[in-house]
Amino acid sequence: MSVSVAAPESDLSGLSTQELLRLERSIAEQFIGGLPWGSILWAFTNLAVWLSLWPLTISGVLPLWVAAPIATLNVILAYLPCHEAQHRIIAREGEPLFWLNELVGHLSPIPMLLAYEMGRLTHYEHHRHANDPVLDPDINTRSNGAWHMIVKDFANQLKTAPPMNTSYAQALERIDTDDARRAGAIALFYELGFNALLFAFAWAGYALEVGLIWWLPRVVGGVYVRFFLSWAPHHPAADLGRYKDTRGFRSRLGNILTMGMQYHIIHHLYPRMPLMRHPAAFRALRPVLVARGCRLDGI
Amino acid sequence: MAVDDFGQPAEGRAGAGSSAPAEANLIGRLLMGTLQILPFLFGIGFIAPLIVEGLKRALPAAAHASWPILVGLAAGGSWGAVANLRGRWL
User: Fold this and answer.
1) A residues 216..275 contacting B (CB < 8 A)
2) Could you say which residues of chain A have pLDDT below 50?
3) Could B53 and A205 be called an inter-chain contact, meaning their C-beta atoms sit closer than 8 Å?
4) Contacts of A128 in chain B (CB under 8 A)
5) Model pTM?
6) Looking only at Cα atoms, what is the longest distance across chain B?
7) Which one of A75, A194, A222, A269 is most buried, by most CB atoms within 10 A?
């Protein structure tokens, strides 16, 4: 994609708030729109790989020690295409490809077992109330540091009612619409259906297979996803506001292994911008972000 | 922006006038009840067969015996029941 407008490298502190906003929007608009084929391909490929692990391991073609890390990777990769769908980035309601948006939204997160509508509604709440200690459904990842987050997240998963599940249920209760109630009911069916499948596979003699392809990857992959998608871009999760609730950061793991989250600040400013354009948009917008006083840790 | 375009009309909200069928309430209570004892069910549904499989792999002599199932159910069921009471798995 060709970018015609980028913020000048010079100091923008002389611009008024309105001028900065106009400049910011004119730059950001260049990166919004079009079909994110990469994310669509990502969604279906990842799901196909994860589904293929079942017959391959049960038939003995693929050893479990190989399948388990692949399944964990599948869980880690399952969320972001769904996230694109949550923001209607593939297509909005009423557009010809809206069915594809919803298909990606529903199918992509199957390995991590996220109910799409619950994910969508609670994620909107996260955007509206990012870092709010009561209203942000993702506030549970707030921690003192990286290791604290990881230990805390595993500890949370040892609870029979993990706080992340509780806060999502509470968010749906607060939304209190028919859509939210339906989303809650579907999420409940997902949870019970997952357990029913787990029990059926286990008692049929495939306890290790189901444990290492689905249950354990959800536990481990879930920590990775929450670390990079929730904790890292919002740390220390103390400030509220458009330019304060999310940060840019430099990770030693780089852009791919952090799944583009170094530039998550761009997503919170422009939620309908496709993930794969965030790095370029960040580079074009960086002087504006500096002028706004955004936290850009090493990036 | 997507975050701003999902507001629900007032008539879509719960409250006055909604009369859910009794069957739906019953199903809802059953589901919630199942959820409340899920740790115990997880103990006998998943941990128990996992223990059984582990025992059979570790002790080939036990492959055709029924005692690993009893051990699995006892250990998995107890663990799940304790987790259900304490609210924590460990």
Assistant:
1) 270-272
2) none
3) yes
4) 3
5) 0.89
6) 66
7) A75
